Amino acid sequence: MRAIVTVERRAGTGVPHWPVRVTAVDGAELTRRMPARPDETGRWWPSATDDELDILLRLTGSLAEDTPTLATTRAYGRFLFQTLLGQQGWELLSGAGTHPEELELRFPPDDADLHRLTWELLHDPDDDGEFLAQDPSHPVMIVRGIATRPGEEDREVRPVTGTARMLFAVGSELHDPQVRAGTEVMTIIRGYDRTCSLIDFRVRAQITLDGLERACGDVRPHVLHLIAHGSWHPELAENTVQLRAEPGTAHTDDVDHVNARALAGAMRAAGTLPLMVILSACESGSTRPGSAAIAAELVDAGVPIVVSMTGRISNTACRTFARAFAAAVVKGKPLHLATAEARRLAFSRLHGGEIDWALPAVFMATDVPADFRVIDDRETRELREFLLRLGPVCAPVFHARDEFFDLLDHLLDPRDQLAVLVAEGPGADARPGGTRLLRELAGASLRAGHIPCNVTFSPGREPRNAAQLAIDVLCAICATRAELDLDVDFTSAILTGIEDEAGREKVDAMLPPRRQCTAVRAKRLRPALGAEDPEGFVDELAAWIREDLLAMATAAQKAYPGLFPASGRPILLLDDPQEVPHLFVQLGSLLSSRGVSAENIDRESRDKIPVVVFTKDPRTRSAGGESRLTRALRDQAWARTAAVMLFQQMTPEGHPDFVAAAWRWLLMHRLPTLDGRHTRPLTVVADREGEWAELVREQTSGTSEIYSAKLMASITRAGMSQKVLEEDNDDAVLEHYPASGSPV
To answer: What is the pLDDT of residue 552?
Structure first.
């Protein structure tokens, strides 16, 4: 339910004032005047007398101090409420049981005097009242409404109903001490909780304006989250955000000050603008005489919803609000509830009368419906259940892994020549997260409407030849079919073909006469194939694997047409077969430029079946030598349409991003505490981030690689004992939010 307060352009003759029209939820209206009083600079303030002007100036000055009192903040909010609405306006909005959940303030977009006030602090005029946004029983989202452009009145703003694409664009380095983008990105990603949401996110750090345009064209984001420095640029006379300068251009400190028009132009690279933009940039929601806020200009350019900062906000408050807001949005909560939760959580992290919780502002086009959901997850619950059952959902992958997801887009595109992706770890003893990466790639494939088939290899049961490798693929197909409730006793081309090649006598000796399902027959037959030389029928093996994979995809599409469209394809993922002799000889015999080999398949059936392999080569490069992988790829025909990605080690000590790397690792894991429990995800205590950096450097002294659970557990224990780290439990904070609202 939305109430609307429309403020017209100021009346400059006679008695100075702003004409106001208040429209209640039920459509009832009243008109009134909001008084105005100019100060010595000519700026207008909503005050009726000189005494009121003095009071408002003192309150505004107090809010600019480092630690304003809560009493001052409340008084400021009451003052704005009374001048905007008055007693009659409040009675109209709160009467007849029609309490609004959203209060849309429609101000003239170029009225800097109005926009520079913190309207998000509006406070119930009663002595025992509450900030409207913090009311525990009826929180109200304060929205700054921007009129829909002429010609777009018939535009229909719709929520995302499938997998939401999100782009993090960071204008600085991830470890920048002022922006701390790495921390913000990771806490927000973690807040999405993939076990209950569908989200496909990409991260672009140190982004330029051209880079933003390319990223928007590639990702086509529904939500763009831009993290950057923001400020008033006196020479340009407008607010800007700082992106990286293009290489070779003459910019001071390699920084490019970008205005709203340039940002909107870059966002249009996808053909359409994002549904929502989140600007984690100071002052991106504020304005000065003669200019509009960046957020307002983006809405005017066509972005339906923009969340931005109306002042210089602390990292902690900005990060907390953004994380809670995004987490609520992707869970399908209406925008007003998402905003209320985010404000409550940000308020809980502050002290006294600090107003940072109110500085994030929501700018919205007037054609966005009331109770709008940015992401409506009601149509995707069945897919989320499949994600959980198939097991690809896990903690997000981030550090030095984002390029894999970019390649996955090309891999899944039937028109793209990329058909095979090989991820090679740095060594047998390293822990680069390859298994977790494959699980995430499987989840991303499933969210995109494709059917992943994960092949894992148990120690001691690695395939000795291509025939056993084909049986392992068949077992993975059976497992996937079982999780999707498809027929598991299907006629398998792999099994039938291998049995025919092995001969009836051998098959009868291995298998009992009674009837067995496909998976059981395959597992019983597998040991007999260890000494088999399938060289004579390897082309047939590839054809049989294709046939079984495509049959699985067809069955899934028939059973779940809403989840798996006809364009969906199977994708084969093989996890860490490091001990398999001549792995790439065997695998190479089953691959072609179309993924799973299609050399002997009818041309009309040669659709690409992409393949992803992760391996840790136990004989890695030394003294400039080649790895087995490099040697195996040489002269392989299928390698011409393959991409090989080498995992980077976690950042070594001395690199400026070392502390950020440790931080990202911590954010994604639950680790032992002093009393033997396991932590919830951790965060650094506000104002102690410098001590956190020193603690990490001390704990990792002399260590070149931090992918060690033992080392990270030591960092966790030290951080918690020194009260530098604390458990980050947003749900508990919201659950125990004081019944009376904000603390006195």
So the answer is: 93
Of 188 and 72, which is predicted with more confidence? 72
pLDDT for the residue numbered 677: 59
User: Is residue 265 domain-shared with residue 336, that is, in the same domain?
Assistant: yes
Residue 584 lies in a domain: yes
Indicate the number of domains in the chain. 4
Least trusted range by pLDDT, from 64-68, 436-440, 606-610: 64-68
Q: Tell the burial category of 505 from Cβ atoms under 10 Å away from its Cβ (0-12, 13-18, 19+).
A: exposed
Dihedral, CA atoms, 273, 277, 282, 284, nearest 10 degrees? 40
Same domain, yes or no, for 234 and 109? no
Q: Please, what is the Cα angle at 557 between 553 and 558, to 5 degrees?
A: 120
Query: Does residue 358 sit in the same domain as residue 246?
Result: yes
Average pLDDT for 359-387: 81
Contacts of 230 (CB under 8 A, 6+ apart): 239, 240, 241, 242, 279, 281, 282, 283, 284, 294, 309
- Give dist(CA 407, CA 647) in Å, integer: 14
Q: Domain range spanning residue 583?
A: 394-450+569-651
- If asked whether residues 282 and 425 sit together in one domain, one would say no
Q: For residues 339 and 256, state if they share a domain.
A: yes
Is residue 191 in a domain?
Answer: yes
The first and second tokens of residue 211, run together, are 């880079």
Pair 399, 358 in one domain:
no
Average pLDDT, rounded, for the chain:
75
Residues 418 and 350 both lie in one domain: no
Q: Which residues of 258-284 are buried (b: 16+ CB within 10 A; e: fewer)?
A: bbbebbbebbbbbeebbbbbbbbbbbb
Q: Among 622, 651, 680, where does a domain finish?
A: 651
Position 676 scores a pLDDT of: 58
Count CB atoms within 10 A of the CB of residue 397.
21
Q: How confident is the model at residue 651 (pLDDT cuts 50, 70, 90)?
A: very low
pLDDT tens digits, 76-132 = 889 999 999 888 888 888 775 677 888 899 988 778 888 888 888 898 887 778 888
Q: What is the rounded average pLDDT of the residues 216-236?
A: 83
| CA 110 to each of CA 113, 145, 274, 433: distance values in angstroms, whole numbers, following the listed order | 9, 13, 24, 51
Select from 597, 619, 651 the last residue of a domain: 651
Spatial separation of the C-alpha atoms in residues 495 and 488, rounded to whole Å: 13
CA distance to 241, 278, 280, 618, per residue, from 294 (Å): 9, 11, 12, 53
Residue 286 falls within a domain, yes or no? Answer: yes
Q: Are 162 and 309 in contact (CB under 8 A)?
A: no
Residues 574 and 462: beta-carbon distance below 8 Å: no
For the chain, give the percent of residues with pLDDT over 90: 6
Give CA–CA dist 265/248, Å, rounded: 22
Residue 350: give its domain's CATH number.
3.40.50
| 111: number of Cβ within 10 Å | 18
Amino acid at 444: A
Task: Say if 483 falls within a structural domain.
Answer: no
DSSP 222-280: SEEEEE--EEEETTTTEEEEEEEPPTTS--GGGEEEE-HHHHHHHHGGGSS--SEEEEE
Apex CA 351: angle with CA 348 and CA 353, to 5°?
Answer: 105
**Same structural domain, 201 and 140:** no
Q: How confident is the model at residue 478 (pLDDT cuts 50, 70, 90)?
A: very high
